[in-house]
Specification:
The complex is a heterodimer of chains A (242) and B (222).
Chain A lengths: L8 H5 L12 H7 L14 H6 L4 H24 L9 H23 L1 H7 L10 H11 L4 H31 L1 E2 L2 E2 L14 H25 L20
Antiparallel strand pairs in A: 1-2
Helix pairs in contact in A: 2-8, 4-5, 4-6, 4-7, 4-8, 5-6, 5-7, 8-9
Chain B lengths: L14 H45 L5 E8 L2 E3 L13 E6 L5 E11 L4 E9 L4 E9 L9 H4 L1 H5 L4 E2 L3 E3 L10 E3 L5 H27 L8
Parallel strand pairs in B: 8-9
Antiparallel strand pairs in B: 1-2, 1-3, 3-4, 4-5, 5-6, 6-7
Classes of the chains: A mainly alpha (242), B alpha+beta (222).
Chain lengths: 242, 222
């Protein structure tokens, strides 16, 4: 630890906010996380569950919905309590709030859908350390009114759910020949077992990101004035600067 | 938007306020969890009991009713010993048909498999010394390979009416001996785990079961 200080020390002493608050429209808050800044496919957050539990569509859905619930609940609470939580203990307080919602989600899943709860195993408890959730609290919910925090959580949660179901569909179709447990290809299909094993998660995510990059690159070529991909989450969207 | 800049200089917040904020938040979180726990716990227990009931039905070939026998002082007893914790003490289940005759004993067991612990329950006919059925309750074995111990119908059928102790053999390599079970190609370790669990549990419990079958203790046995 020989460096003079944290990398943002200069910005702090100059009075420049660490994460600038960008004035955005409610529609932008809602839609941002769904596709253009999708937490998994663009920001590459929450990859642990996206790789680990997407071997079937049912597991992906359950994980996506549980994460959605935790994200929404935490964002509402963090946004409502932002003036009561001193900045010094804010991360501890956010983690406490997130962990409470995760524990509730864990118990509710065990009580209502025991088979899915068993299939998801330890990954439900690990939602606590999903950086997508803590990231939204620190970067958004702790600075914005409750309504905007709800919009942001819904958008990001739906984006996560879309990415999970996308991966789950590809892996279950190829690895098991079925979608949500319903056989699709018939008896003659020989399942690609590797797709439901851990390497299949990496292959699927890799090919999805490759497809995303290629698609964005093509759009970029057609409309040169457009923002390049990937967008940074803290970058100021042009024309929307406060 | 006053909190927009947590890194900037600002007045020191008193320690008691930091501690009390976290203490209050912790207490409220605990309270919320207690409420949800009170709602969910009976449901979770009911699911567990239903899963066990279903498994016993399956491995004993549909008994009319079943009773729990506790392992205490080197014998099986109908009555939970005084002061014993019912979640800790070893047990077997005995299934009866409509006339009250014992169909067999259902025994749970577990052991590390290829990925993680494999837990199963099997039915045992003490009169004929045969395993009458097996069901895997808990397994994280490799999908497509090791998880065949739960799904492969040929492998599961091999446990219906097989003599003990069990002997795992390669498919087609058996010599027609009574305890032979064909192992699954590509899932040797998982298959052997299942066989080892059953042999291990029977080694411990067989003398107790035989003694109980000869002279049922404490009450309403056959």
């Amino acid at each position: 630890m020989t460096s003079a200080g944290p990398p943002n020390a200069a910005a702090s002493s100059a009075g420049e906010p660490l994460l600038p608050v960008i004035e955005t429209t409610p529609g932008h808050d809602l839609l941002r996380g769904v596709w253009r800044e999708n937490p998994v496919l663009v920001q590459l957050l929450g990859l642990c569950p996206a790789l680990a539990v997407t071997n079937t569509v049912a597991n992906s859905l359950a994980m996506g919905l549980a994460t959605f619930f935790v994200l929404l609940g935490s964002s509402v609470l963090v946004s409502s309590l932002k003036r009561l939580i001193p900045a010094e203990v804010r991360i501890a307080a956010y983690i406490l709030i997130i962990a409470t919602f995760v524990t509730i989600a864990d118990m509710v899943l065990a009580a209502l859908v025991p088979a899915t709860h068993k299939a998801l195993g330890a990954f439900i408890a690990l939602i606590v350390v999903n950086c997508m959730i803590l990231g939204r609290q620190e970067a958004f919910a702790s600075k914005r009114p409750v309504g905007r925090a709800i919009l942001d959580a819904v958008g990001t949660g739906v984006g996560f759910l879309i990415a999970m179901v996308m991966m789950g569909s590809i892996r279950e179709l190829l690895g098991n020949g079925s979608w949500l447990g319903v056989p699709v290809f018939g008896q003659s299909f020989e399942p690609w077992i590797i797709m439901i094993l851990p390497p299949g998660g990496f292959f699927t995510l890799g090919f999805i990101l490759l497809g995303f990059g290629w698609w964005e690159g093509r759009k970029q070529k057609r409309r040169p004035g457009r923002r390049p991909w990937p967008h940074s989450v803290v970058e100021r969207p042009e024309g929307r600067v406060a | 938007m006053t909190d927009a800049n947590p890194g900037a200089t600002r007045p020191q917040v008193a320690s008691w306020r930091l501690i009390s904020t976290l203490a209050v938040a912790g207490a409220l979180a605990g309270l919320a969890i207690v409420f949800v726990h009170q709602w969910s716990e009976p449901r979770i227990q009911a699911h567990r009991a239903a899963a066990l009931r279903e498994a016993i039905q399956e491995v004993l070939g549909g008994p009319t009713s079943y009773r729990t026998l506790w392992v205490a002082d080197g014998r099986l007893t109908d009555v939970l010993p005084a002061g014993a914790d019912s979640t800790e003490i070893d047990r077997v289940y005995v299934g009866d048909d409509a006339s009250g005759a014992a169909l067999g004993f259902a025994i749970e067991g577990e052991r590390p498999g290829y990925q993680d612990v494999v837990g199963l329950i099997f039915g045992f006919d003490a009169g004929r010394g045969e395993v009458i059925g097996m069901k895997v309750l808990e397994s994280k074995e490799t999908p497509g390979l090791g998880d065949k111990i739960e799904k492969d119908s040929t492998f599961l059928a091999a446990f219906r009416g097989v003599g003990t102790p069990l002997l795992g053999v390669k498919p087609g390599a058996g010599r027609g001996e009574p305890g032979e079970v064909d192992m699954i190609t590509g899932a040797t370790i998982s298959s052997r785990t299942v066989i080892d669990i059953i042999n291990e549990r029977l080694e411990v419990l067989l003398p107790l079961i035989e003694a109980y079958a000869a002279a049922p203790t404490d009450g309403d046995g056959p």
